[in-house]
């Protein structure tokens, strides 16, 4: 169990980081659930399942951190529950390439977001936030791996790839903005 000296941290920064990261990993789980509902028995099913298993581990860790740091989750979780599943299933209905285009778009957005958080925590105090930094860096690396898996599985050959990617990334930016605050 994670033990935290709550009096020594910048509560506003940590609350915002944990709330949005928990929401993001929750949403990622729902996206992969939607993709598996459509493509789970296809040739790409095991690849999606592998990525989903990592996302489940990420969510479990953020569940633990939310308790340890006493951070409330975003009030938008019910919305992300539905929106994530619809995005996952909808992109999978475009086929394997559509699902992988979704993965590339989301994981690129999330890895960029994690990099911003790493910079913020480094500016605050790298030693004080050492454990949180290690977790975020590890998860960022996992997300980059998922991004690369998507590219390796022909994401860029999806119908209207750039339009799809741009739309999903705009949605990610909105979800990040809202989940940090609500």
From TrEMBL:
One of its GO terms (biological process) is regulation of gene expression. GO terms for cellular component: mitochondrial inner membrane; nucleus. Transmembrane segments: none annotated. InterPro entries: Ferritin-like_SF (IPR009078), Ubq_synth_Coq7 (IPR011566). SUPFAM superfamilies: Ferritin-like. GO terms for molecular function: 3-demethoxyubiquinol 3-hydroxylase activity; metal ion binding. Pfam families: COQ7. Pathway: Cofactor biosynthesis; ubiquinone biosynthesis. It comes from the Eukaryota. Keywords: Iron, Membrane, Metal-binding, Monooxygenase, Oxidoreductase, Ubiquinone biosynthesis. This is COQ7 protein. It comes from Aegotheles bennettii. The lineage of its organism: Eukaryota, Metazoa, Chordata, Craniata, Vertebrata. The gene is Coq7.
């Amino acid at each position: 169990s994670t033990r935290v000296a709550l009096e020594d941290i910048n509560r506003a920064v940590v609350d915002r980081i944990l709330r949005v990261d928990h929401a993001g990993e929750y949403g990622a789980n729902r996206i992969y659930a939607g993709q598996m509902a459509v493509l789970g028995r296809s040739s790409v099913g095991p690849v999606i399942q592998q990525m989903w298993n990592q996302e489940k581990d990420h969510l479990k860790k953020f569940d633990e951190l939310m308790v340890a740091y006493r951070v409330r989750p975003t009030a938008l979780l019910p919305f992300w529950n539905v929106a994530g599943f619809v995005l996952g299933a909808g992109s999978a209905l475009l086929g394997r390439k559509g699902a992988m285009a979704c993965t590339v778009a989301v994981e690129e957005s999330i890895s960029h977001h994690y990099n911003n958080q790493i910079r913020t925590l480094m500016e605050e105090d790298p030693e004080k936030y050492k454990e949180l930094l290690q977790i975020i860096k590890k998860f960022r690396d996992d997300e980059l791996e998922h991004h690369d898996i998507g590219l390796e599985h022909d994401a860029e050959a999806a119908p209207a790839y750039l339009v799809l990617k741009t739309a999903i990334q705009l949605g990610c930016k909105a979800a990040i903005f809202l989940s940090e605050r609500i």
